[in-house]
Each structure stands twice: as C-alpha cells, then as structure tokens.
Design goal:
single chain, mainly alpha, disordered N terminus, repeat, PPR5-like
Length: 495
C-alpha cells in the first residue's frame, strides 16, 4: 500500500479581537471628525440694550438686524449678567472617551463570547484578563459561569478553581449554580473526591446549599466511574435534605446501571419512576432503555420495551428512531432498518446526520463499500453535514473492504472539510494502517496523534499491540505497554 498521507489542515485566521479593535478605532476617528464639524457653535450677538443714533452704515445695518434671542435668553449671559464659559469641547472629549471605552469593552466582550463558543479556553482567559484590567469593566455572574463551564468541558478543573477564587476575592457573591459549575469541572475530569470536597463546602454556606442539579452532576460522575457504592449514599443524603430526584437524575442512574450490567438495580429505578409523580419516565428514559438493549443486540427485548413505552403514552422522537436503525443495522436486519426510515418519512421526521451515520456504519461493518458510498452521496446531496463519526465509518468500511487507496482519499476529504480529529478518528486510521500491514505509516499516525495532544485510549494500544504481535516485534510491544502503564498511573490531569 502506498503510504497514507494525512492532510491535517489548520487555518490560522486573524485574531477577531484585533480586527474588532481596528474597527472600533476607525469608528472612533470617524465620530471625532464628524463631531468637530457639527460641534462648531455659531453665536448671533444681540444688539445692545441701549440704541445709539448714528449715521454710519454699520450702525444702521445693526439696527435692522433681526434678533435671534430674546432678552434674558442669550446663552452666553447668565441671569446675573455674567458671562458663562461652558467648556463644551472638553465635555465632548470626555463623552467621546467614555463612549470609545464602552465600544472597546463591548467589542472585546463579543470576542470573549465568540471564543467561549469556539471552546478556545486559553484565548478566552487571556481576553478576560484584558477586560478585568479595565477600571470600567465589572464581570458579571453570567460571564464567570460561562468560563467555569468552558474550563470544565476543556478538562481544566484547577484553572476553574483559580477563576472561582478570583471571583470571590473580587467581591462577586458565589451562588449554588456557580458552585455546581465548579463541582462539575472536577466531575468531568473524574476527580470524584475533589468534587465531594466542593459539595461539603457548599453545605457550610447558607446561600449556596446543594440542589437537585448538584446531586445529579455528582451521581453521573459516580456511575460513569462505576463507584456505585456512592450512589446509594447520595440518594440517602438527598432524602435527608428533602431533595426529590427528578426525571433527569433517575435517567442518569438508570443509564449507569444499564451500562454496568446491573439490571436488577436498573429495574428497581425504572419501577420507581413508573410509580412516581415527580420523576415519571420520558422519551429520554425510553431512549436509554432502547439504546441499552439495542447495543447488546437484544432486538426482541428492545422491541418489547418500545411497545411498553408507547402504551405508557411516551411518543418517540428522531433519536428514538435513530437508535432502532442503528440496532437493526448492527444485526444486518436491513429490511427493518429500511422500514423505520420509511416510517420516519411518513411521520415527517427528518433524517439527520445520525440517521445516515447509522446506515453507513451498518454497511461499513461488513465492508459493503458500494452501499456505504451510495448512502454517503445521498447524505451530501440532501445537504446533510458529515461529522467525525461519518468519516470514522467510511475509513473503517474501506479498510474492511481492502480499498486502502480510498482510506487515503477519505482522510484527505476529512481534512478538506475541517472535520475534528478525535481519538476515534485516529483509531480508525491506525486500524486501517494495521489492516494494510503498513506499520511505518501506523507509527507515523500515532506520533501525529500525540503531537496534536489527542490522548490515546485502550483501543489505540490494543490495535497497535495486535499489529506488532503479527510481526513478532516484542520490543515495540514492550514500549507500548510501558507507555500505557504510565498513562494509567498519571490519570486525569487538571492542566
């Protein structure tokens, strides 16, 4: 196979902050120029109070002039007859400076919001620090909330805690919501003990008592980390504090028990939801159960639960049908898969990217490149945007079909579309290299993965170990095992 040449593209755009700042400067100059033209004060001097008879032309012309101001209303004379010297130009300069400062602050604040949306946490912090240095800028609770959530999602719990401490030092009153955002940042990094420390701190503050969202966040972290011994204790604590679990809370625990294969506990939670008035099952409950049995290939049980939820009055949504399509596709039940898609059209449910991904994945698993390509072309013809999973399925499908030259073109197309390259994407390419027995290119992709700070997972190491085993490269296997152990030992990092 020819070496797979990846096209990992990145376009460096000019900083939006500098562009907006230049625009603000241009606008400021325009306002100053316009103000200087309109700010010229023309005063029409009134004739003297006492008229003097004179034969000179100038005197006669002065007498004939029309007054523009009534007596006592002339702006240059005060009621006491003294001249009033109002520094009009100085006032205007101050107002212009103030308006310019506000315009600058608004422009930078917009840049901050844009960086938060793009999840560029480091640049967002730099812009925020720039704003904080201005005496006229006072950060609001909402700004801190957005930054805390961003840092949590970006795996930066320590920086989130530093920002939280800065907020408190500057006099911004912490709230339950802000504490919950900080707690969630530790939960996202699987730092359960630190999250419980935040919970205990909240209990000591009368105005920051934990609520159902705080406990739901902790419960999700516990079930994701398979620390089920903490789940019951959290439920007991909620009961002691008269905090009633809602449907979201129960769905989180239900999903956790199901993924761990604890079906007795899952059935207990589900039964409680059916009898409850505050946490009745909803479409998310339905999707959780269907996805659980669908992923396990237990189609009959999945279909029975679908009928049960429908009889309970829960209406399916697009995601529900996508789950059914994915389950049927994995079992190669193409007739039922097509029936669900036709049913979606009949009920006017739109086919989404996930719908097409499930169909592409079904053909990808069996190396059916023809139908896979047909589905992908139809997806693009309907204007549906492909995502990382789309290209993972395409790369795996072409590798399963032995069409390694199309693996290369798929990687290049992903670069052209600027598809985010996550761990799953790299794993798909590494697996394709291993199937092609091109270990040099496999190592090159693995190194690129680390250069891009994309964390390898257990699947990454398993693929590479199997590839080295086939070639009897025990030294390579030893190095990989050492690296994997270091990764496990280091655990999640805050920065």
């Amino acid at each position: 196979m020819a070496s797979i040449s990846l096209s990992f593209s990145s376009s460096l755009l000019p900083s939006p902050l500098l562009q907006d700042k230049n625009k603000a400067t241009t606008a400021t100059k325009s306002r100053d120029h316009h103000g200087s033209l309109c700010g010229v004060v023309r005063c029409a001097f009134a004739s003297p109070a006492r008229r003097k008879t004179s034969s000179t032309p100038s005197s006669s012309s002065a007498v004939g002039k029309k007054r523009l101001w009534k007596q006592g209303e002339f702006p240059g004379i005060s009621s006491e007859g003294r001249s009033r010297k109002t520094p009009i130009k100085n006032i205007k300069k101050k107002l212009d400076r103030k308006n310019n400062a506000k315009a600058w602050a608004n422009t930078v604040a917009e840049a901050l919001s844009d960086l938060v949306l793009k999840k560029q946490w480091l640049q967002a912090l730099e812009v925020f620090e720039m704003l904080r240095e201005q005496p006229f800028y006072q950060p609001k609770e909402g700004t801190y909330m957005k930054l805390l959530v961003l840092l949590g999602k970006s795996g930066q719990p320590l920086r989130a805690h530093q920002l939280f401490d800065t907020m408190v030092e500057e006099g911004c009153e912490p709230t339950t919501e802000l504490y919950t955002a900080l707690l969630a940042s530790y939960c996202r990094s699987n730092l359960i003990d630190e999250a419980f420390s935040i919970l205990n701190q909240m209990k000591t503050l009368p105005r920051c008592q934990p609520d159902v969202f705080t406990y739901s966040t902790l419960l999700k972290a516990c079930v994701d980390a398979a620390r089920f011994e903490l789940v019951e204790s959290l439920y007991e604590e909620m009961d002691e504090r008269s905090i009633i679990p809602n449907t979201v809370t129960q769905n989180i625990v239900l999903s956790g028990y199901g993924k761990a294969g604890k079906f007795d506990q899952m059935e207990k939670v589900l039964s409680g939801m059916l009898e409850s008035t505050s946490s009745k099952p909803d479409v998310w409950t339905m999707n959780t159960i269907l996805s659980l049995f669908g992923n396990k290939g237990q189609i009959e049980i999945m279909e029975k639960w679908y009928e049960k939820f429908r009889n309970f009055g829960i209406e399916p949504e697009t995601r529900t049908f996508n789950i059914l399509i994915g389950a049927y596709g994995k079992k190669r039940m193409y007739d039922k898969m097509s029936s669900v898609m036709e049913y979606m059209r009949k009920l006017q449910f739109p086919w989404t990217t996930s719908t097409y991904n499930n169909v592409i994945e079904a053909f990808s698993d069996v190396g059916d490149a023809k139908n896979m390509e047909y589905t992908f072309d139809q997806m693009r013809a309907e204007g549906m945007k492909a995502d990382t999973k789309t290209f993972c399925c395409l790369i795996r499908g072409y590798a399963n079909a032995g069409l390694f030259h199309k693996v290369v073109s798929s990687v290049q197309l992903a670069g052209k579309f600027e598809i985010p390259e996550n761990t799953s994407f790299y794993n798909a390419v590494i697996s394709a290299c291993a199937k092609a027995e091109d270990l040099i290119e496999m190592e090159r992709v693995f190194n690129r993965m680390r250069d891009k700070h994309c964390q390898p997972d257990s699947t990454t190491y398993s693929i590479m170990v199997e590839a080295y085993k086939k070639e009897g490269m025990n030294d390579k296997i030893y190095d990989l095992e050492q690296e994997r152990q270091r990764m496990v030992a280091d655990g999640p990092k805050g920065d």
